[in-house]
Amino acid sequence: MVEQRKEMLESFFRLSRKSFEAMKQPKKFGTDRLLYSSEIHTLDMIGKHPGITVTELADRQGIFKSALPKVIHKLIQKDLVYRYQETGNKKNILLELTDKGRIAVQHHFEFHETFDNGIMKKINSLTPEEYLFLSDILQELEQYIDHMEQQE
Question: pTM for the whole thing?
Answer without folding.
Answer: 0.73
